[in-house]
Amino acid sequence: MKLVRHLVRFDLQSLSPVLVVWAGVLLLQAVVLWMGPPVPVVGLPSEMRVNLSLDIATIVMRWAMTVVLVALLVQRHLLVGTTAFWRSRPIPRASILASTLLNALFLTVIVPLVWFGGVFLGMGLHASAALHAALAIAGEQAFIAGLALALASVSKNLAQIVVLGVVTVVLYGLGGEVMWTLPRRLAPFAIVLHTGEWVGIAFWTVTGILVTLISVHQHLTLKTARSLALIIALVAVVVLVKRFPLWTVTSAPPAGASSRTLQAPNLSLDLESVRVTSYPGTNDGALQPGMRYSATLADPTAGTIILKPVSRTTTIQFPDGVSDRSTSRFANSWLDDAPAETLADQPYASVSAAIGGATIAEPGSMAAGRYRFTFLEIGADRYAVRAAQPATLSVLLDLLAYRYAIIARVPLDAGRGARSPRYAVEFEGIAPLEDGVAVDIRESYVRDWQPAGPTFYLLLNQRRRQAVVATNRRESSFQSTLLDYSSMLVSRTRLEMKLSATAARQVTLNRAWLADAELIVLKPETLGLVSTSIRIDGFTLARPEQAPQAP
Amino acid sequence: MQYAIETDRLSRRFGRIEAVRDFTLQVPSGSVFALVGPNGAGKTTLIKTVMNLMPPTSGRASVLGVDSRRVGPPVLARIGYVSENQELPEWLSVGGLMNYCAPFYPAWDPAFAAALARQLDLPVDRPLKHCSRGMKMKAALLVSLAYRPELLVMDEPFAGLDALVREEFSQGILEATGDRPWTVFVSSHDIDEVERLADWIGIINRGRLELSEPVSSMLSRFRQVEVMFDTDTPVPAQVPASWLLPQAAGPVIRFVDSAFSDSESPARIRAALPSARDIQATPMPLRQIFIALARVYRLSE
């Protein structure tokens, strides 16, 4: 252990010029992250492109420096070869290996973890959120460092690492194409992709074969230490690769959804009526002309919970034993009617209820009220022969249940902010508009904080029981990292709080009104999945030339 | 321990090339053993095999009583190793190299190391990457001597060094040795480089050990012999096997007698060359002996 400490210390000392550059890169990225995109954010303006380019540049620099650091650590101690200095000295091979791995881990993973954890804390995030985001970056760093370790172990210098890296990326891309994209396009493999099982098996098999081949080769050439480093690196790579979207395939849950089933005794969906209409369909081959059957459901939960369709499974069973079952996922579009009222439409009436935790409705979700939606589309040519036969139709609906909750109340004082777990917001300024005001804010949050529905921003004057809803939503944000699973987002947004002509008669957004106001941020809070089923016996398909009939 | 290094029918093969063949050698403890041979003779391969930098293909070797395949940190702590093709941690300064190496050796003597640095005229603060080849070799020697190893192994330490550095290097070794009993095993392709140091010589040629004996014995048995005749005389068809490279030049026949004895050789020569008028036997320096042997080996190939 004493020797390992000695080796670690010497490596750190000897790398000091490179470490200064490394510290500079980390600092630069923190500064860029802290700056965030400029105001206003609409689409992706040129100013933001500059910031985004800077951000990407700092990320690439961080990755490049990680590779350089690992390469220097590994390659300056030639672990193998008869000319290696340490081999003729009483330095145990394990000590060299341990010191190299420890330094690689410390410099490329631990330091960024601690640094970015501190930066995120400084940006106002809760400790848990800061840790979460920093861990994501550390995971990304471990991936890069592991890859660099593997490449550095089988190469002699940085130039060879670069060449090997390019080859690896190309092979990875080709492998991804073969294992993922190609089967996706070929129908016979669709089931494989649906479960992801065979993709996983293929990946593990190829990885296992690679590890075995490398190990055998390394041992045959007496490169035991390098072999060990390589295998450790490969294991790290494999573990981290599992976090890529490749692994989640099609079984990924909808964003923000919880897999738990919601127990809501006061929530039920009842079939109110079934109406059958003709369905013209299309002739593009995907949908054949057929019939549309709709139902109207009532939500008796009095609008306290919002339901958003996640999936539906429709089964039709004919008396002669023929049946058909189909599942649609994430098909918001099959809601025929959006709720009539939205918060934006009736800001003043709904706001007090919203603040109290009541529903804010939005297109594509079901709030209080009645809904009509399509639950079956049948191609006419497929079931024409069974038209007029009384069948049993059952529909299983999975709905994501959520409600809006206040996540931040921000005083309208410059520099003041508020935070909740995984989210921080800071008020930056307010400016008059012709028909309202514009509020500039700065938000920081981890990517998977992204809620199931949109975030709402209100200016609330509690004393007057009045509120104004932002008429624009966040349209763009600023990513700190490129990998999907490890994003820390920072955005600067100009919220436009505009008053309609009607609203302007009730509210005067003057200095006095604003003095008592605060900014409220509402975020959908996922409650869980609600499942309900509808069964219709004696369901009769119409003949193609006839209008279909409801039972 | 009678021998610091011992090999028994040691062989090392690289594909079809057998770099070391059936090499059997004993390096007596306390000797300064010079292994001499032309470039490509197998010196470096032998040393690397002995140091466990590469395994032998067959046969065995032992160092300080330990099988070469088991040479690890405990044994290496008792061995100093200097090689012309050893990678040095060039990101360190000379002083940094000393500090880097010190904890590896329980017997490291900082005062001795500092004295060696002064004696070898080494710039302690200069990074190794900015040092000349000679300085690097001296730095390698310093960190191989500072713990007073029982065995110092040097592979072509003088190659490419100028005369002054070579002198400093040799002087450093000699002074470091002092009165202490230790063993030095040094390889070189040029006998001049090791002549001052060695008290035992081994000659390697094409992977085989051709000769191994004390320098004193070698110097005493090799003579450059000139036999003068009254008329031009050719070299006889049959001459003793110990006569190497016999040549006739008019009335003179010259050869190297590899088994010369003051008491017996003159009579033996007269018996083989009865018409000899005069015989002159001149002692040979090591360099001439080595060159003569090298020619013999080449001719025999």
Structural class of chain B: alpha/beta
Q: Please state the overall shape of chain B, judged from the principal axes of the Cα atoms.
A: elongated
- Average pLDDT score of chain B: 88
SS element count, helices of chain A: 14
Strand order of the largest sheet of chain B: 6-7-8-3-9-10
CATH class of the largest domain in chain B: Alpha Beta
Query: What order do the helices and strands of chain B follow?
Result: EEEHEEHEHHHEHEHEEHEEEHEH
Give a quick account of the main beta sheet of chain B: strands, pairing sense, barrel closure.
6 strands, mixed
Indicate the low-confidence ranges of chain B by residue numbers.
Answer: none
Count structural domains of chain B. Answer: 2
Radius of gyration of chain B: 22 Å
Instruction: Please tell me the CATH architecture of the largest domain in chain B by its name.
Output: 3-Layer(aba) Sandwich
Percent helix of chain A, as a range, is 40-55%
CATH fold topology of the largest domain in chain B: Rossmann fold
Query: What share of residues are in beta strands of chain B?
Result: 25-35%
Summing up helix and strand content along with how strands pair, one would put the structural category of chain A as alpha+beta
Shape call of chain A: flat
Largest sheet of chain A, if any?
6 strands, antiparallel
